[in-house]
Amino acid sequence: MTFSFIPEPKLPRTYLIIPVSELSKVDFSQVCETSAETVRKSVDETKTFIKWTGDEPSFVSSLTGTEGPYTHEEINTILGTDVWTSDEELETP
Q1: What distance in Å separates the CA atoms of residue 83 and residue 48, rounded to the nearest whole number?
Q2: Calpha distance 72→89 (Å, rounded)
Q3: What is the pTM of this model?
């Protein structure tokens, strides 16, 4: 069974995994996410990710502990792992 966790965007986007502790450094006017309260987090809530279209946002160079950048296909594969998706989320009702 194949899951699509994020719909494919119309324009290519870049994805970057960051520690939740780095969210205070994110300028949400430069990324697709709207706030620190609405980002998706890993199962253990230590990681999240941001995404953008076009040039890398200026604040990204100040972030530490990042993973990536990734393409849409790469991030979907990552989000399908048990680090990001619990067994309960995969169960069919």
Answers
A1: 11
A2: 21
A3: 0.83
